[in-house]
From TrEMBL:
Location in or out of the cell: Cell membrane
GO cellular component annotations of the record: plasma membrane
Stored InterPro entries: MetI-like, MetI-like_sf
Domain ABC transmembrane type-1: 95-497
The organism's taxonomic lineage, starting at the top: Bacteria, Bacillati, Actinomycetota, Actinomycetes, Micrococcales
Keyword match Transferase: no
PROSITE patterns listed in its UniProt record: ABC_TM1 (PS50928)
Main localisation: membrane
Similarity comment: Belongs to the binding-protein-dependent transport system permease family.
The name this protein goes by in its record: ABC transmembrane type-1 domain-containing protein
Gene Ontology terms: biological process: transmembrane transport
Length: 507
């Protein structure tokens, strides 16, 4: 493994060197970085031109100037921009915003894409499969800048108008959502007509009751999950994780998961009334989340018995979901104060920028502000990536489920859950690893358009401004980061191959 990694790193260095040399010269030859100064009427124009020439080594031809730039890269110095700003500082500021945006969008798109893609493969040629296929191709064909504009108009402006008026879902909309929910779930759940009819009735009734309850408690103005919602989520996560990983017949696993959920619920009131007020930094919240997962895994370890590994996974996921819902409820508690503050004025869903200027508040207020600004660009990126992950995961799962070893597993009498989860799902992930590796680098580069539409000060703005000013250093900083991420995640994908498929060897 070590030999493989070293060999790939050496090859990647030569690829990156050739790519950066070509990119640097393309930018350098694309225009005149002194054009703004030559058109200036300032009395010290010549001195300004001479200073910029000295600062950026413009008296050296671009092919040789590249090696001066590369010498700085070896020392960790990306140089200065045409405005005299330190590119390292510009990159540090830009990469934080872009990584925040891309990370959330990628994680959500992967999870949703895998779930929907695999379920459509298992329900091949059903109404659910046809509907998802149509939606996936629709999103895949839409240009992201157009999707972004639609989100601004109908999600942000429309929802803000809804909040300013009477934030109550009309009865006809509730009926429409209930019908769609009934059709969706009845198409997902397999079985005969009677089972589908019961599923449709339960799904439609649940949607109707939920929306009427939200109207009754003015949920859109004062959102909350509450202790009842946390209990239902924790118990639901315990049953769901047990059903997926070991099956509900494993009572030991179900009991361990329910114990984990109970521990999370027991910490609800202490966290809300006492602990949360001492959390003032993001690293504190992250440390608390890691502690929650550690305790959950420990519960699985002590209650796991002979099937300890699987039960530890169940309790770990259950504890994480329960802790996440509790933290989400804490963020919701500050929503009314945030939405009605002087900086927001009742229109909380942001259409531009990555944060609200001069907003003062606690970590929880800051978190809500980050959410409202991340919402639209994240949805835009998710919709495009979701289509890709859905199609590839569906095709991969269909191919795997038709293999001989799947038929053998069924012939041995294994439960369908075991066949799908342990034999099918793991092998279906192998080609998805390649898509994820390419998509992460593509999202960082493709976020240029999204950031421009939504006015984010991220990597996209760094790249576009550098091109407009014929400024190679910021452009190369963007290029090195994107190229480095592409190389890194492709190497990770190769390593993941060996983990997922023992037949693959990287030596």
């Amino acid at each position: 493994m070590l030999t493989f990694v070293i060999r790939r790193l050496i090859a990647s260095v030569f690829v990156l060197l050739a790519a950066t040399f070509l990119m640097y010269n393309l930018v350098a030859f694309s225009g005149d970085p002194l054009e703004d100064l030559r058109a200036s009427q300032a009395p010290n124009r010549e001195q300004l031109i001479e200073a910029r020439v000295r600062q950026l080594n413009l008296d050296v031809i671009p092919p040789l100037r590249y090696f001066i730039w590369f010498g700085g890269i070896i020392r960790g110095d990306f140089g200065v921009s045409v405005e005299g700003r330190d590119v390292n500082a510009m990159l540090a500021q830009a990469i934080g915003s872009t990584i925040q945006l891309v990370t959330i969008a990628t994680i959500v798109a992967i999870i949703l894409g895998l779930i929907v893609g695999i379920t459509t493969a298992l329900r091949q040629y059903s109404g659910y499969d046809y509907a998802v296929t149509f939606i996936a191709f629709l999103f895949f064909s839409l240009p992201i800048f157009w999707v972004a504009v639609l989100l601004k108009q109908f999600v942000a402006i429309g929802f803000n108008d809804f909040l300013e008026r009477n934030p109550v879902v009309p009865t006809n909309v509730i009926i429409g959502i209930a019908v769609v929910s009934a059709i969706l779930w009845s198409s997902i759940i397999p079985g005969k007509f009677r089972r589908k009819a019961i599923t449709a009735l339960v799904a439609g009734s649940a949607a109707t009751i939920t929306l009427f309850y939200m109207n009754a408690v003015d949920w859109f103005s004062v959102p909350q999950i509450g202790i009842v919602g946390v209990v239902l989520t924790g118990v639901g996560a315990a049953f769901a994780m047990t059903a997926i990983i070991t099956g509900l017949q494993n009572r030991r696993a179900l009991i361990a998961a329910l114990v984990t959920a109970a521990i999370g619920v027991a910490f609800y009131f202490p966290f809300m009334t006492y602990i949360s007020f001492f959390i003032t930094e993001w690293w504190m919240l992250l440390a608390l989340a890691l502690a929650a997962v550690a305790v959950s895994v420990a519960v699985g370890y002590f209650l796991g018995g002979h099937d300890r590994g699987s039960i530890m996974r169940i309790t770990g996921f259950t504890g994480f979901i329960t802790a996440f819902v509790i933290a989400l409820d804490r963020f919701m508690q500050v929503w009314p104060a945030y939405a009605n503050s002087g900086r927001i004025r009742g229109r909380p869903i942001a259409t531009i920028g990555s944060s609200t200027p001069n907003l003062q508040g606690s970590l929880w207020v800051e978190g809500v502000d980050i959410y409202t600004h991340l919402l639209l660009p994240t949805i835009a990126l998710i919709l495009i990536s979701f289509a890709t992950y859905t199609r590839y995961s569906r095709a991969s799962m269909l191919e795997v489920m038709n293999q001989d070893y799947i038929r053998t597993a069924r012939a041995k009498g294994l439960a369908e859950r075991t066949v799908v989860v342990r034999h099918g799902f793991r092998n279906a992930l192998i080609p998805i690893a390649t898509i994820v590796a390419f998509d992460i680098g593509g999202l960082v580069g493709g976020a240029v358009i999204t950031e421009t539409v939504f006015g984010w000060t991220g990597m996209g703005q760094l790249f576009v401004n550098g091109l407009n000013r014929v400024d190679p250093n910021p452009v190369m900083a963007f290029f090195v980061v994107v190229g480095g991420l592409a190389i890194l995640f492709n190497m990770i994908a190769d390593i993941v191959y060996a983990i997922l498929d023992p037949r693959i060897r990287v030596s």
